[in-house]
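Task: complex structure prediction.
Instruction: return structure tokens for all chains below.
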Amino acid sequence: MKRYAELAPSQRTIMTPGPVEVDPRVLRALSYPILGQFDPEFTSYMNDTMEMLRALFQTSNQWAFPIDGTSRSGIEAVLTSLIEPGDKVLIPIYGRFGNLLYEIAERCGAEVTSIEKEWGTVFTPEEVISAIHREKPALVLMVHGETSTGRIQPLAEIGKACRELGILFVVDAVATIGGVPVRTDEWCIDAVIGGTQKCLSVPSGMAPITYNDIAAKKINARKTIERGLRTLLDSNTDDIINRPPVIRSNYFDLSQLQDYWSSARLNHHTEMTSMLYALREGLRLVLDEGLDERFTRHRLHESALVAGLEAMGLTLYGDPSCKLPVVTCINIPDGIDGESVRNMLLNSFGIEIASSFGSLKGKIWRIGTMGYSCRQTNVLQLLGALEAVLIRHGASIHTGTGLQAALDVYEQK
Amino acid sequence: MKRYAELAPSQRTIMTPGPVEVDPRVLRALSYPILGQFDPEFTSYMNDTMEMLRALFQTSNQWAFPIDGTSRSGIEAVLTSLIEPGDKVLIPIYGRFGNLLYEIAERCGAEVTSIEKEWGTVFTPEEVISAIHREKPALVLMVHGETSTGRIQPLAEIGKACRELGILFVVDAVATIGGVPVRTDEWCIDAVIGGTQKCLSVPSGMAPITYNDIAAKKINARKTIERGLRTLLDSNTDDIINRPPVIRSNYFDLSQLQDYWSSARLNHHTEMTSMLYALREGLRLVLDEGLDERFTRHRLHESALVAGLEAMGLTLYGDPSCKLPVVTCINIPDGIDGESVRNMLLNSFGIEIASSFGSLKGKIWRIGTMGYSCRQTNVLQLLGALEAVLIRHGASIHTGTGLQAALDVYEQK
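Output:
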């Protein structure tokens, strides 16, 4: 019998667009003993979590709860519950994660139309709104912050146009929630998906979502009680003709998950105890810091990072007018092996930064300043290490200037 | 701004069929700092986990990895990847979780036929095999251990019959894995789903699965690379005519998850770091104890529990010849309010036991002896508390005998 070593992960400085470092208080919450899923203490933690999610999403929606899975589980739960096979869906794509929305919507049986924008920029509201008028979709799906390209898409005008036309507007805010404003109600977004492992600084494993009554109405029209929990009365509702088709997934059926998260507490899955502890604690820390204060903090460390990188002579990728504050994309200097730089940062300095996908692979590095990782010590350590590693790789950069520029930002704040 | 109290869950003695108590060493693993998902340290933990899962499932299958979700996520991943819409599926049902298989298979587009057995007993192999000959399904789906009724279904002969007929045999071993033998290869099971929060004593949040090359062949025939990660070469494979229909879920697409869990490391979701730590540590403890030793331990504490309950004058529910060793179902004595007993156990003694579902609600209590909860101190504390609570509820039971009978079992071992 092979014997496995005890788990002993190294301490890393994680400056990627996620997963990022987790506050020690959240790590501690993960280590607390288990409660049963219907223990009143546990259900009170579930209720706290729903309340705090409403504050996070800046919404008065009734429904705000996590899906038990990684971020894309939240996307799939919302799409598979909202999209009926044959529904026409419009997806404006400006990076990899728009393609993921396409992939998932297509598997839900949607008739998908996409419009595409060159990577490194975003859509003007008019471009999207004119496509909406042309395509007349039932749903519009968009990514708020594209970590693949480091861009952020303005949403308010698009949301308003959708609301006026009676079109459902669904937003993937996995990368932005907790780091930059996501104003669900003000921007007329019908359903939003957040992520835990980025600006919330909770480990990957849950996907907080929220949706309003308009979305809930469409979901509830497709509702069935789980076989094995149905009473005769419930079964009869199945016989109603002209019902929309049943949701294709049990795991992601929001009409059933609502019953689990409401006072009905109708059994569905067994809630992830430890992850729920972590999410509740992570949300508590976010709201304790204050949303506005948190967004300001993210802006500050982004400024210091950018000042340092530019003082070193590095250039940023993409249209600066739509830069995502929590992800900074750097053009890899000519002749430099981007992966070799990343490996040396990790192996010699314990610092992780990211590469990118598709056509950007090998062309840019991506640095995240998200959540608990978004702090002065991390930004300064990274800038110092990057300078040393770039010198070691023979890059022609300005030396001794990057950290000074970042320190200037911190002293002027 | 409302302020939320710090998380401070009570210490419970959890004697339900899950979620059960977690070994402190696993809780500690949950609190370790995050690693990036492609950090070589982290991918080595992923590889360890796959190796240990093969040992747990007693299989030489290449594919053994967790699905990132609660137990039913594993069921849905296997079914949605294996079932093509229109596939004929046979489901022998003898409790609630057989109905869940039906529910999920139906949503996958299967043509489902079920045979049903009175709750409290299981099928003879002949009953299932004759239905297989009659129905000629493409897949047979069965629950190994039904926690809703506390029964265990023998599988070896059914597996052999399916293999001979070229029928895929899929088993839900959520309740049994790590507590009683699950011999994947010996019993000719093509795909098995396990659970973490029961006999493995890892918190709910991952669903370990394994499947063999026969299953993999069917899954791979439906493979597509994720949109946004495809190269031109990959896209061309989409144009092949007469391909079976694409898997309806991206999150649960085993053909994509394989690429993530293999050395290809093709990006899919962001693996749940903390849960993976917990699963790896939990599996390490299981294999360190030894599978056979672990099964024997589960039998011992079941014996002591049953001896104690019967000495008290309580009667067990269901056919004893197919009793699930890790769940003991007790008939609630006439005139006793089962929920009141459960509440007093929880509120006065900090001990949780379970009720059941559907027609058994209010009729039986269910006591789990699973994983880390399955130990002498817990069994003895429960028996003492139950006697006191039953006396307090006016039940006519034998007093002073339950604990003595259990102690006898422990002294004779």
